[in-house]
Design brief:
Distance between the termini: 20 Å
Shape: globular
Strand content: 25-35%
Order of helices and strands: HHEHHEEEHHEEEHEEEEE
Oligomer: single chain
């Protein structure tokens, strides 16, 4: 959706982004969440009532409340929410390999179980704005614009969608036991305080690895490492319901 929105409303996006000036789409978008996790809809506070959707959409359009989201780019495409490198991306890649149609949240169970037995936690190295922030060690990395992840946890608790900064969280993980501990600490909102965890902000991120590691972008398979992620001087405005607290 992000790539379509930018291509449609910014036909001269390359020149606009190259100028270095912050730009925004000339008109806001309104979404109707129909995906698996609907993370975008949840972040924006979009909860249309199917029985009353016409009136609710009309009210949102009349109210004209707009939320701005920064736009990031990788070799795998444009994203608005979050990119992951490591275990979560392995699950996404495996699901992408075996899926044969529409998916729901239960379709992630088998890929996740398989990842728990087969994933080997390769070494990552992370550079943010030219500075090496995480040196070679087994880890998982998340880069994003928003606090929430598909699990509902605030994986990037300091993230703001419109601050023209990417939040980067690198978490040392070398075993299934480490992963379970990390999951529990993330559920409690304590993962950023764990030993070895790196949490920084920046505009350009490069993640390398000793062996190719899966990358996911907004829940879609997006190639393998090395991966470069940079923030574009562009924003996409979204219409949100009057009661949204974003």
């Amino acid at each position: 959706m992000a790539q379509w929105a930018i291509d449609t409303a910014f036909p001269n996006q390359e020149a606009m982004c190259a100028s270095g000036e912050l730009a925004s789409l000339p008109y806001p978008l309104l979404i109707v969440p129909m995906g698996t996790a609907n993370l975008m809809g949840k972040h924006l506070g979009v909860k249309w009532n199917d029985e009353n959707i016409g009136e609710e959409v009309a009210e949102a359009l009349e109210e004209g409340r707009v939320a701005q989201l920064d736009v990031a780019r990788t070799s795998g495409g444009i994203f608005l929410l979050m990119a992951g490198v490591g275990f979560d991306a392995w699950v996404v890649h495996e699901l992408d390999r075996i899926r044969d149609g529409p998916i729901d949240i239960t379709k992630y169970i088998m890929p996740a179980v398989k990842a728990m037995t087969e994933y080997r936690f390769p070494v990552l190295e992370v550079v943010v704005d030219g500075k090496k922030v995480f040196k070679k060690a087994p880890a998982v990395a998340l880069v994003g614009n928003i606090r929430e992840y598909g699990t509902g946890f605030a994986i990037l608790p300091q993230a703001r969608p419109d601050d023209q900064l990417l939040d980067v969280c690198v978490m040392p993980v070398s075993s299934r036991r480490d992963l379970i501990k990390l999951f529990l600490s993330a559920a409690a909102g304590e993962h950023v305080n764990q030993e070895g965890v790196i949490y920084v902000k920046g505009r350009k991120v490069r993640i390398e690895s000793t062996t190719p590691v899966p990358v996911q972008v907004d829940g879609e398979a997006a190639g393998m490492t090395p991966v470069e992620i940079d923030l574009l001087p562009c924003r996409i405005p979204f219409i949100v319901p009057p009661e949204s607290d974003i």
